């Protein structure tokens, strides 16, 4: 697995996803500005977040002052407690979703008990156990600021709620001067334990986003793709 920050285009950098599907380790983006940067997603654990912090330091890039969640799922938010002195921004619906997750008694025993009750949780909960060798100091952090439809941040960064079947709070982040759209998991089907035989990739959403004709499209579980490559290949599932 490549673990160094990679430049997507212009001011947009990416700490790549882990291609091992058992890891469920989403990519994390950094958008630099004049005196700071904006982080897009937090990492799947405090340990993952610390790896990203080290990579930012080694690359000589500014530490983030803002963290945007593309959605509330654990592999995008569980690293948030390791990011100090950042403002966390998410769609308004994420607050209740994360509050419910924060009430769970997370531990390895809890993960085992939940999988015993519902084996379909196995892939996700085994990945959580791998990501969290220990739980000291871990907590789920709620957003400091929320939005409903769109939000413009520093450095011209645009945030937009798109929703969808994967997560109701799914949000995309656009950096116009770099021609980059960060997609999170917005067009993916629901998580495995909630998925039915009828559920699949949201091709209609993917087509709508491609019609905006950004130079680069980056979902959280695939390498960055140019507009031409994304249009030719179609969307890729995360599982």
UniProtKB/TrEMBL annotation:
One GO MF term: hydrolase activity
Coiled coil residues, start to end: none
SUPFAM superfamilies hit by this protein: Metallo-hydrolase/oxidoreductase
Keyword Transmembrane: no
InterPro entries: Metallo-B-lactamas, NDM-1-like, RibonucZ/Hydroxyglut_hydro
Domain Metallo-beta-lactamase: 25-221
Ranges that cross the membrane: none
Lineage: superkingdom: Bacteria
Keywords recorded for this protein, A-Z: Hydrolase
Pfam families: Lactamase_B (PF00753)
Protein name listed in UniProt: Glyoxylase-like metal-dependent hydrolase (Beta-lactamase superfamily II)
Source species of the chain: Kribbella voronezhensis
């Amino acid at each position: 697995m490549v673990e160094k920050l990679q430049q997507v285009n212009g001011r947009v950098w990416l700490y790549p996803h882990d291609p091992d599907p058992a890891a469920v380790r989403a990519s994390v983006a950094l958008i630099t500005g004049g005196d700071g940067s904006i982080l897009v997603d937090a990492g799947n654990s405090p340990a993952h977040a610390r790896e990203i912090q080290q990579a930012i330091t080694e690359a000589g890039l500014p530490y983030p002052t803002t963290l945007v969640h593309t959605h509330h799922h654990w592999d995008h938010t569980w690293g948030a407690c390791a990011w100090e002195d950042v403002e966390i921004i998410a769609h308004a619906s994420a607050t209740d979703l994360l509050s419910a997750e924060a009430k769970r008694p997370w531990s390895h025993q809890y993960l085992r008990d939940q999988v015993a009750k519902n084996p379909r949780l196995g892939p996700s909960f085994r990945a959580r156990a791998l990501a969290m060798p220990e739980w000291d100091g871990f907590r789920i952090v709620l957003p400091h600021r929320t939005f409903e439809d769109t939000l413009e941040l520093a450095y011209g960064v645009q945030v937009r709620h798109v929703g969808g079947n994967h997560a109701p709070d799914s949000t995309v982040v656009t950096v116009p001067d770099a021609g980059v759209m960060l997609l999170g998991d917005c067009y993916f089907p629901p998580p495995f334990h909630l998925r039915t035989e009828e559920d699949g990739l949201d091709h209609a959403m993917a087509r709508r986003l491609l019609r905006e004709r950004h130079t680069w499209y980056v979902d959280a579980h695939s390498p960055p793709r140019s507009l031409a490559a994304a249009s030719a290949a179609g969307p890729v599932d995360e599982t």
